[in-house]
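Students often ask why we bother encoding 3D structure as a string. The short answer is that it lets us treat folding as translation between two languages. Here is a chain of 240 residues written in the first language.
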Amino acid sequence: MQHSVDCLVRVLESYRGRDKVIRTLCYGSQLVGGIISRKAEADASSHNLGKSLLLFSAQLSHCRTVLRLFDDMSMLAYSYSYGFGAKEKDGITRWISVLTNVADQLYYPCEHVAWAADSHLLGVKSDRWWVVSTVLWATSLLLGTLRSLRVLMLLKRELRKCHKDGSRCHSQIDRQMQVELLSILGCMADFMNAIHWMPHGFLWAGRFPPWLVGLMGTISSVVGLIKMKEGDFAQTCSAE
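And here it is in the second language, the structure alphabet:
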């Protein structure tokens, strides 16, 4: 019990860890609130609970938007350190990563303008800026999926090579493949929501009920938590 509490505290003390926890609570609340609101229309108390959970989810989402005002520099530092991916062995993976970094870098200022417009800090309409930021997010998710698929293909080649050579690297490659599969699952879940938030008339834009948006977001959030735990495990192994 004490170990679990210590792990939770350690996660909440880091910015990325806290963001992932808030994100999971945000979408989880939307999932539960959407389900309750849908099934309890005749029950006033249950309906009010569902509505409260949806409002709580909206507040957490707004909280994350405000916190992302400070993410530009960290994203810029990451993009600068990655550069054109000179250390990346595979050329396709390198250029997909570069394009992903470009989309992510452009996403933040567009979202900031949209937020400032909604907050009446700028005298512009926010609609087009939200659309642009959503398009950039969806682009980043698609590129992330393509990158994971490419990495999976390379890992399979490496795994076949290990079988031929008789080397004992199967467990490490299997773990890497599991992480990439989780990445694809998380990206696709978020991509479903990204399309939902596009202008009406585009594919399934605007057709998701709140509980389905919450479900997709919860899936991607849980994937993010699992990947964060896997990252901590990898750092521990490398330190040992």
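Translate back mentally: Helices lie at 2-13, 15-39, 44-67, 72-82, 91-118, 127-165, 170-196, 210-239. Keep this in mind for the problem set.
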